[in-house]
Amino acid sequence: MTNDPFSRLSVNQEVLTVTQLNRCARTMLEEVFSGVWVVGEISNLAKPASGHIYFTLKDHDAQIRCALFRQNALRVREVLRDGSSVKAYGKVSLFEGRGDYQLIIERLEPAGDGSLKLAFELLQKKLSEEGLFAAEIKKTLPAHPKRIGIVTSPTGAVIRDIISVFKRRAPHIELVLIPTAVQGKEATFQILKALALADKQQFDAIILARGGGSLEDLWCFNEEAVARAIADCETPIVSGVGHETDVTIADFVSDVRAPTPSAAAELLAPHHQDWLFTLKQLQQRLERSIRQSLTQYQIKIEGLLKRLRSPSQQLQQQTQRVDDLELRLVRSFQQQRLTRQSALNQLESRLLAQHPQKRLQTIAQQLNTAEQRLLRVMQEKLKYLRIHLTTQVQALQIISPLATLERGYSIVLSERKEVIQSANQTTVGQDLTVKLSKGELKVRVIDNQLDPVNLSLLDG
Fold it and tell me: Which InterPro entries does the record associate with it (predicted)?
């Protein structure tokens, strides 16, 4: 059977579910692209509470989703930014839940720099701000030391070189070795223990030494715990770690930094002798040997990693799905909050529009208008009634008896104040009252002729 994964595409003709298809695609991608380096620019950076990191890696023409899980993200989580150029190593995979093509990152470095270098710079900045590198707290080396403690590996060229320097330059000085590992997983703990022990031995000075190596080889001397242990020591410490070009955090915290372990010994020896050339040759041979060993081990480890199927892959897929749901939930919550805020603003606007104060102002304006209209109507009505009354008065005056009296007529009243309209209503000798226009007359009937006397209107 062929080892080419793409040959399976034409062999298997069965109908797949979406889940099966995505699973097969993920397996094929991980087999073909099990370890690749990719350079690009970070965008859409997301850091959910799980500790994982998600972002898009892009260049001018393309982009790919990336996932950096928590165990690989601890050292770079706080320094990643959108727009940063990075170099990422990992495998190409597929997020089955969404069918997204992605890169599962195992190592991440700034473009051109290593992640260890970045961690080095962050710790250097932190400790410098705390004042652990300040010159005023450095202790002075003794001019004539008698007992010196050496914290280094009991094997290798470093301890032999230091002893050789003291034998040739100051054989009377007592040297005491406090052995410790200077590389590997246990190195940090052993260095801490050795420093604590050496600080209690009342040495005149302590040499902390190690031969040259890569940044990874020297990393135990860049650990924060080691730096703080050096700062807490009461005994002066000379750091002689690595080559002349190698710089560690331990160099900054120590009271004096020597470019090499032999130079550290010469600083504490009464007389100076130069044998740096031999030391450099040894350092170069050690560096080449270590690098060759590391390269061989790296090739072997990468071969084993390609064959190893980690049981955590499924867990990482599920964790990524949880993170995706978390991000979607946050976006949904924010959208609902904005929608409800908009609805609340609309209700507040409507409430302000229906405020009783506005209605009262409107009603007051309407009442004022009605009052003015009522006043005008009343005035017009009074005017009309005044004119009508005047007309009625004039009409009444026309038919009024008083007006008749003013024209020369009179009204005859009986004793009972009854109007006498005919002579037969009277009797001879009866007293009557004659009502004139001005005043009245008391008369007595002498004769009541029943036949009227015709008077000529023309008579004078």
Answer: Exonuc_VII_L (IPR003753), Exonuc_VII_lsu_C (IPR020579), OB-fold_nuc-bd_dom (IPR025824)
Alpha carbons within 13 angstroms on the beta-carbon side of residue 119 total 18
- Cα distance between residue 157 and residue 286, in whole Å: 9
Distance between CA atoms of residues 216 and 221, nearest Å = 10
Residue reference for tokens 């000798």: 429
Q: How far apart are CA 149 and CA 176, in angstroms?
A: 5
Query: Which two tokens mark 142?
Result: 């003794």
Lateral strand order in the sheet of 174-179: 174-179, 147-152, 205-210, 237-241, 256-257
Right CATH for 5-113 from 3.30.9.10, 3.40.50.620, 2.40.240.20, 2.40.50.140: 2.40.50.140
Give the residue from 198, 206, 209 showing the smallest Cα distance to 153. 209
Q: CA dist 363 to 54, 74, 359, 370, Å?
A: 63, 70, 6, 10
346 within 8 A of 121, measured Cβ to Cβ: no
Could you state, in order of their start, the residue ranges of all structural domains in the chain?
5-113, 118-289, 402-444
Checking DSSP bridges between strand 431-435 and strand 36-46, what pairing results, if any?
Answer: unpaired
Q: Is there a contact between 99 and 70 (Cβ–Cβ < 8 Å)? A: no
Predicted confidence (pLDDT) per residue in 1-54, tens digit: 445 555 555 545 678 888 888 888 888 887 888 888 898 888 899 988 888 999
Summarize pLDDT for 88-123 with one digit per residue, the tens: 888 898 888 888 889 899 888 776 545 567 678 888
The amino acid that residue 153 corresponds to is S
First to last CA, the chain: 168
CB 221 within 8 A of CB 253: no
DSSP 8-state assignment for residue 26: H
Torsion 168-169-172-177 (CA) sign: negative
Nearest to 212 by CA among 187, 184, 248, 237: 248
Pairing of strands 53-58, 100-110: unpaired
Contacts of 231 (CB under 8 A, 6+ apart): 132, 137, 253
| Rounded Cα–Cα distance for residues 163 and 171 (Å) | 9
439 conformational bin, left if phi > 0, alpha if psi -120 to 50, beta if neither:
left
Give me the residue label for tokens 């005994």.
235
Residue closest to 209 by CA, chosen among 162, 171, 164, 241: 241
- pTM recorded for the entire structure: 0.41
Q: Which of 249, 252, 254, 251 is nearest to 232 (CA)?
A: 254
What angle in degrees, to the nearest 10, is found between the helix axes of 276-307 and 157-169? 170
Given the candidates 3.40.50.150, 3.40.50.720, 3.30.465.10, 3.40.50.261, the CATH classification of the domain at 118-289 is 3.40.50.261
